[in-house]
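Entry for biotin complex. Fields follow.
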Amino acid sequence: MTVAVDSLDSAALDRDLADTRFSGRVQMFSSIPSTNAYAMRQAEAGAADGSVYVADEQTAGRGRGAHAWSSPAGSGLYVSILLRPQIPPAEILWLSLAAGLAVQTAIQRTAGVQPDLRWPNDLLLNGKKVCGILTELNAEVTRVRHAVVGIGINVRQQEFPEELRALATSLLLETGRAVDRQALLVALLQSLDREVAALTESADRTAVAQSIRARLEANSSWVRGKEVRVDENGGFTGTTAGLDSRGFLLVNTAAGMRAVFSGGVREN
Ligand code: BTN
């Protein structure tokens, strides 16, 4: 299939983001090692809350754990959002979970399909990964200095490297539609702006966390009733049983209820 090139237009982006904290704060790169690494460095150097870094290509894209994130030019949306939220470090998980919901909404709006959410925040279409989120944090025990939410969405890939073929997919492969990356970025940042506002500006963060938990339960097949194996603490298996009050996934195992801390949740 021939796919027309889409491009990112800074002026149009600022116009579309006018009502958000991201307006005038988006910086674009044709190629960069990693938007997350860059955003973390910019944060150290004093960059503003709401700064956004987008790249057409990453040459050293970072995934969760020790994984790399395949980031070829012209194919994916690679974006990092720098935030300075006035919330305790222990509550950053809610921000990361809310980012997953924001991506889900943006994909639904622009591609017309609803990906599943696998805790903490992988997005899957037909069981394959279409988006990953890496949230990195610089914090004291009681105070977040800055957080960087890094989002990689496979948009227009027509194929993947051999080692990813069974695990990864793109919006193009699943829908046949070459979604415009700029439209997807706008939808994502508009949706994320609302999530961040709710979490950071509400007087009742417990209620906001409860809303995130309820929306995850409603929009993810993984949060409750899924037989899973978890690759942590030697590995264990069980049935997912919702999220605890901090946002960690609960799994009912033969030895009792356990919370999952680090991810690595797979269908059993
Ligand atoms: C995962 O392993 O699931 C998380 C992948 C996160 C990839 C994104 S792409 C934009 C940002 N920059 C990076 O280097 N990583 C994140």
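NOTE: Helices lie at 10-16, 35-44, 92-111, 171-175, 181-201, 205-219.
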